[in-house]
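hiii, so i know i said id send this last week but things got crazy w the move. better late than never?? heres the sequnce for the chain we talked about at the cafe, plus the structure i predicted for it. fair warning i was half asleep when i ran it
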Amino acid sequence: MADIADINMTTSSDDKHPPVVLQLLPSLVTGGVERGTVDVARTLAEEGWHSLVVSAGGPMVRELTRAGVNHIEMPAESKNPLVMHANVDKLARIIRDYHVDIVHARSRAPAWSALAACWRTDTSFVTTFHGTYDTSLPFKRTYNSVMARGQRVIAISDFIARHLVDKYSTSPDRITVIHRGVDFELFDPQKINPERLVRHSQEWRLVDGVPVIMLPGRLTDWKGQRVLLAALAKLPNRNFRCLLVGDDQGRTGYRRELERLIEKFELQSVVQLVGNCTDMPAAYMLADVVVSASTKPEAFGRVIVEAQAMGKSVIATDHGAPPELVLLGKTGFLVPPADPAALAAQLEHVLALGSSERETLAREVRSHVRGRFSKETMCSATLDVYRRVLTEKERNGSVVA
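okay and structure toks below
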């Protein structure tokens, strides 16, 4: 890990140096944005490009180091205007010292600093639009708009691409849809050893032969845990176990509300809040059906793709990106958002599937996601965006405004 004060010239002044891409994000702790950044950084290095990542640091820096990627630590997570202003100077220096060709910003606060540094140094600016963000206030819309100001804007779903056009009047010609990619080396049913399954099964007190309904996601109201509990209360029998997998991240009030609902619906014997899970591939293998009940539109929906990669039936809400991620009735099922009755009916249908139907569905869902949502596809498409940006810069002689 490099510090801003220790930056040295790492490429020659020759114009023939390999392309240099700097990815910028708040930190490298955990999450989909962080995972995508590391995957792209590693691919750049493997392809012979010079790959840099700037962030406030975190456990995932180790993965960059192992891949031979330079990480430069700076307070990129800060929303303090003074810090953001100081970051402009730091980024401009990094751009010049490392002969950066493209800056790829993945979050709003550091993107504002990056945009100013790119203007100052005539460097190409790319963004990835990861979510709908809050647009309720005029200031918020302006703050969010930096993610739509890239010369090329990567949208993580068709839903987000439409959002960019509708809310920020972004030209479709500047938008490239690149779905998030899943690492199929990790999410592969054939690579889950029995010990991992036994450990989770014992920890969660699962019983052989009893179907498992799973909702993975942090405990926050819009992830739909309340909707699922209301749906479970409508099922005609209680021959199932339901696992709510996810940390409350300090939202203790919401957790207590869920516990009260479990008591209200008399679901204490079948529903368990299991907290955070560090081995989701094994966790998915224990599920018979995986639910994504989000009441707000998901920008992508990684849970849906991960569960399908493990051959699992998925029920998701019919808004946002989830309709892009399933083949309706073949690899997954959709229900209206915040509709417990519809969710209960779909749960009954999926839990009633016979073993041969489940095996057929498992083959179809694995084939579906492997063909569309691989990590390799995501990285390859991202590098194609970088190549187009470099070609435009060479053709025009400077960054396109």
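btw DSSP finds 15 helices and 14 strands in the chain. thought thatd interest u
miss u guys!!
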